[in-house]
Amino acid sequence: MAxxxxxxxxxxxxxxxxxxxxxxxREAFGDRFDAPAAGGPAGAGAAGGPAGAGAAGGPAGAGEAxxxxxxxxxxxxxxxxxxxxxxxxxxxxxxxxxxxVWRLQRTFADFGIDVTADECLxxxxxxxxxxRDAICVSPRMAEVLDWCAARRPLGGGQLxxxxxxxxxxxxxxxxxxxxxxxxxxxAHQMEKVEALGLSRWFAPESIVVSGAVGVAKPDxxxxxxxxxxxxxxxxxxxxxxxxFASDVVGATSAGMPVVWFNHxxxxxxxxxxxxxxxxxxxxxQGLLALLKSLA
Length: 295
Ligand SMILES: [Mg+2]
Fold this sequence. Notes:
Elements: E1 5-8, H1 18-29, H2 71-90, H3 96-109, H4 117-133, H5 139-150, E2 178-182, H6 186-195, E3 207-209, H7 210-213, H8 220-230, E4 237-241, H9 244-253, E5 258-261, E6 279-281, H10 284-294
Parallel strand pairs: 1-2, 1-4, 2-3, 4-5, 5-6
Helix pairs in contact: 1-4, 2-3, 3-4, 4-6, 5-10
Bound molecules: magnesium ion.
Residues 9, 11-13, 241-243 line the site of magnesium ion.
């Protein structure tokens, strides 16, 4: 296949989002939920379940109170609720603040824990601060990005990188070898781009943020906008993302081949009409090997 460009999701694809999530969680709640609770506030019973013992467990049993939450399970639940609430926030039906409260209250409710709106906002604020101060591109992901940046695809046309930006009149055939499509408020997402030092690999115009363009994943339109920015067509891109609902569903509906970066080992949704990703990888080494095989 012709792979002109590799497009990446940002959150929990280009960096490990559990780390800032855990820092935000610890700052807001400390070890409050670590000891088995006496009396489940959500009325779901089963307080004082088995201690998590720090194991990175599988997906949370939604609706079950099961003792102290495992942070990865908590994070997975928060991503699920975030995807549910994000669209309403983008449409302006709820404020971003309400969205933050909504997703965290539902996340904790999955574990039989009631939290107040103030507590959710405190955690959100600490989480956002950690996303500015405590995130990085792993050496393994840096290897993937280095490889993408070094590619010189066949077929002519000038390849543009961060050091070779096009002028206002775009050069015919000019294109970027890589780009980003991310959902979220423009300023917040760009803070993360800066914190991660992504300008080393990505030209500013190849970074598409939903808050800046007014349309969000999984809407196929944001994938088309990204194609225009990087100078190629959806079928000549490969898209890499961790979220089934935003990334796999969105890229598929835009006609863009997609790699599901399933490093959290989530279960794929099933059922009629649910798209299947072209490829699934579970770590950066698998991703790099796959991209090399497609080049
Ligand atoms: Mg993501």
